[in-house]
Amino acid sequence: MAVSFDEIELGDDLPVEQPDLSLEAVTRFTEGAEMRFPRFLDHEAARAEGLPGALVPGLMSQGLLLALLHRWSPGCVVRTIDTVFRGPLVVGTTAEVGGAVTDIDEDEGTVEVDLTIVDENGRTVVVGTAVVAPPA
Amino acid sequence: MTDVDVAAIRSDWAGTEFETATFEIDAGRLVDWAAACGETDPRFVDPDHPDFQAHPNFTACLGTGRMLPEDFPRFGDGFGIDGGKTVNVHGAVRPGDTLTGRASVHDVYDKTGRSGTMVFIIHRMDFVNDAGESVSTVDSKMIRRL
User: Fold this and answer.
1) Is B36 within 8 Å of A29 when comparing Cβ atoms?
2) How far is the alpha carbon of A72 from chain B, nearest alpha carbon, in Å?
3) A5-19+56-133: what fold?
4) Which of A12, A93, A116, B96 has the highest CB neighbour number within 10 Å of its CB?
């Protein structure tokens, strides 16, 4: 599904996806980010810190939402992304990423998209908003 | 601890730039970051793509080592809670770029609710590329409970 600016309507839902939250994916992210901390890579070490298990880094959560936006509207340019981390997203679990169009700026050629990550227990662990310029 | 004068801290510190660092942008790191996030757009995962560039929030991992100035007032519960990140993209970051990042205290404010007073500290990183063009602004929100 390729979505251009003219095809987007207020209230449109983005396709819901299940991202890869495996230890392998998180390890690769921490290599790119140079954030090789045990709390992201080792369940036992994370539990010793009082966490429910190794955590998907917040910046990776934000990146999962960016990847969703790029698949929804190929060629789009993300101008701004703002995320709030409301709860832990644990490595090796499942989750759903999704979003909905909440505003359209005809003058700027941009749309505002509300974004969420919901964990396997149904808790919304990340909420966010992005301003995106889809291709014309 | 409830005698913290947040307005005075804001007046003294908001807008204060306290550290600068430079960062070399490496293609391998950009691919690892984007691919691990499930990115499939070749602009972000194929170094041979003519428009290859960093994932929009890549700059959020680049820091100077300090989140606050050395003499910033101490209060609340240590480092506090990560309240989230905002990334404003002004231009593409590409491999081979050398970015200069300037760290500042962007804002300090408080909110009081049923669970007490929370102080929000916004740490800002502004990045420019070799040509002096602004490419990214990253705001990190730290929350401390009083």
Assistant:
1) yes
2) 11
3) Thiol Ester Dehydrase; Chain A (3.10.129)
4) A116
